[in-house]
Amino acid sequence: MIGVRPVKRVEMLNIHFSRMAEIILRHGGTLDKYIGDAIMTFWGAPVPTDDHPERAVLAAKEMLEALEDVNKTLRDRGFDLNLKIGIGLSTGAATIGNIGSEQKLNYTVVGDTVNLASRLESITKEYNSLIVLSEYTYERIKDRIDCSVLGNVKVKGREQPVTIYAPGDGASLRKIQS
């Protein structure tokens, strides 16, 4: 996005975020916040669902598929770029609620599970996988969604390595953004 004028950057982000938000919401996700060019999302609150890990993985896969349409829309509007995304997912306990100050509160989620998902998103390029799942998410979906193991990774803030996975064989996800 270097060299993109601020007004055009806003237009580009709004096109991208609108499409991705529609997918997230359709799969029962809660939009937490936009952080730069990233979307923080969670499942299972405010309405609890037993299948939230599966919903999150299916949404992530659909987001990757929709990225081709987003990039086509951007090209049609004169953008000379190709957006790429990486998605990190983890399942577990978290603290959720209206968090902030007396001046500004946000309904958000915090905790180790959130931190791990963020760390996994940051290693998608390193593992050449557009979606990286924690072992905790994998355990909840392995009977319904085929996954391939990517390896073990030591992430900041954790003593023990985490086994990470990609939905599918991994190769199909890499091809989407090649």
Question: Which characteristics define this entry?
Answer:
alpha+beta; Alpha-Beta Plaits; 4-stranded mixed beta sheet; 8 strands; 24% strand; globular; disordered C terminus
Description:
By secondary structure, this protein is α+β, with helices and mostly antiparallel strands. It has a single domain, classed as Nucleotide cyclase, GGDEF domain (Alpha-Beta Plaits, 2-Layer Sandwich). It is 39% helix and 24% strand. It is built from 5 helices and 8 strands, in the order αββαβββαβαββα. It has helices at residues 6-26, 52-76, 112-122, 135-141, 171-176; strands spanning 30-35, 38-42, 87-89, 95-100, 105-110, 131-134, 147-153, 162-167. The strands form 3 sheets. A 4-stranded mixed beta sheet has the order 3-6-8-7. Strands 1-2 form a two-stranded antiparallel sheet. β1 and β2 form a beta hairpin. α1 packs antiparallel against α2. It is globular and about 45 Å long. The two termini are 18 Å apart. The model is unreliable at 174-178 (pLDDT under 50).
